[in-house]
Amino acid sequence: MTDIHAYENAPEAEFGDYVALLKPRVMSLVVFTAFVGLWVAPVDVHPVIAFCSVLFIALGGGASGALNMWYDADIDAVMRRTQKRPIPAGRVTGSEALAIGLTLSGFSVMMLGLAANWFAAAFLAFTIFFYAVVYTMWLKRWTPQNIVIGGAAGAFPPMIGWACATGGISLESVLMFALIFFWTPPHFWALALFMKEDYHKAGVPMLTVTHGRAATRRHIFAYTLVLAPFAIWLGLTSIGGPLYMAVAVVLNALFIHGGWRILRRDEQTAIADGYAVEKSVFKLSLYYLFLHFLALLVQSWMGTW
């Protein structure tokens, strides 16, 4: 009853609002990395099977997004950057988001099993569970390591893509996972440095809130150092090569340098220039991941030629 009264004066939902529930920006990363994982695998996959596999992985990622928005509606309503999402804005009800998330979860897992193989389908089901339950319902509100452990959910798609082609796991797919897994903390912590108040108001125990910005800066730099060897190691596997290696060396040198610049800054300087360095490193982190996976894709094409 309360749910009905809360939404009766809200604007009517449009198709775009239901698409927004699926977190299309996150889904685009899921689609791209899953496609790369499938493409670079050492097994030829029929184009129709490949298309269907990536489509159902994308729907699984969208299902995770809808379940996340359903559970996090209270947090989203407080944070400035999420207040306009469909549920806190009152255009979509929480029950609708839950229904969409559960329906897409079951559909995507079942169809991936039929289109590719049941190992990949089980992997997708575990990923949805990990993001919606382990990360959203537990880690996010409980520990400042939420991004570190929860980052695994966003790192699984290339492994699922690889599993669609091969039916299993290999060193290459694990290293693609590691690339995303160790990239996630410095990426989000760079954002948190200039969005700390949002997390503080929402009661989310982000590292900037629990340990302060100085500790967060140290963690960012440390993770850029940990990340680099995995990125280089991937270039030494069967899916690597000179093009990928060149891209990885340049990008990791830039990312480490960016982490070093963040480490050396104090809060007074950061506030004075509007967190210019932190914002530039965050922007670099967006290109970092995309260009690594693009290099893997182009390297594979070059090998085919």
UniProtKB/TrEMBL annotation:
GO terms for biological process: heme O biosynthetic process. GO terms for molecular function: protoheme IX farnesyltransferase activity. InterPro entries: Protohaem_IX_farnesylTrfase, UbiA_prenyltransferase, UbiA_prenylTrfase_CS, UbiA_sf. It is an enzyme of class 2 (transferase). It is found in: Cell membrane. Its EC number is 2.5.1.141. Coiled coil: none annotated. GO terms for cellular component: plasma membrane. Pathway: Porphyrin-containing compound metabolism; heme O biosynthesis; heme O from protoheme: step 1/1. Keywords: Cell membrane, Heme biosynthesis, Membrane, Transferase, Transmembrane, Transmembrane helix. Interacts with CtaA. This is Protoheme IX farnesyltransferase. It comes from Paracoccus amoyensis. The lineage of its organism: Bacteria, Pseudomonadati, Pseudomonadota, Alphaproteobacteria, Rhodobacterales. The gene is ctaB.
